[in-house]
Amino acid sequence: MTQSTQPKQHRKFIAVILAAALAITGASSGPARAGDDFGKVVAGLAVLGILGAAIHDHNTRDHRRGTVTRPHRPNPTPHPRPLPPRFGRYDLPAQCVKYFPNFRNGKTLVARGCLQRNYNQVRSLPQSCKVTFWNGRKNRTAYKPRCLNKHGYRLVNR
Which of 5, 59, 90, 125 is the most buried (most CB within 10 A)? Predict the structure, then answer.
């Protein structure tokens, strides 16, 4: 059921109190006599007992439903955990990114010689990212950083 079609609990409680007040008011509108005082006290105690039972029922019914409200606390930020070794192979040393002025008017590339010294799986790098160029004295081989990034590799400071 939606909340708009279901009557609210506090409205039921107010209706019970108003009904009890009207009943007591109507009963006590006659002239006061000494013998009726006992009956009025008993009727008042009965009304108080009915109200107390209604309040108790209202409170226990909410607990049975499990509608206990608690303040909202945001989830704590998780602490980063180290990756397993099988994922560590995708971490390339950032110190191997070098500036090569003779490659396409100066671009940064990941140097193959540095990777061979600091990274164990150079042969597993994608061949599509490999570039060979002439630096004026000899052919140099390097890897394009954006291409490596697209294949899941990342440059990490160690």
Answer: 125
β-bridge partners, 97: 110
| Of 109, 97, 116, the residue nearest 135 (C-alpha) | 109
Bridge partners, residue 139, by sequence: 134
Report the Cα–Cα distance between both ends of the chain, in Å, rounded.
Answer: 58
Q: What was the pLDDT predicted at 75?
A: 66
At 28, the pLDDT band (50, 70, 90 cuts) reads low
CA 90 – CA 67 distance, rounded (Å): 48
DSSP 66-127: T-------PPPPPPP-PPPHHHHTTEEEGGGEEEETTSTTSEEEEEHHHHHHH-S-GGGS-G
Kindly report the number of other CB atoms within 10 A of residue 92's CB atom.
Answer: 25
Judge contact between 156 and 94, C-beta under 8 A: yes
Round to whole Å and give the CA distance between 137 and 5. Answer: 85
Q: Is the pLDDT of residue 120 over 70?
A: yes
Separation between Cα atoms, residue 111 and residue 103, nearest integer Å = 12
The Cα–Cα gap between 145 and 152 comes to: 11
In degrees to the nearest 10, what's the CA dihedral of 47, 51, 53, 58? Answer: 160
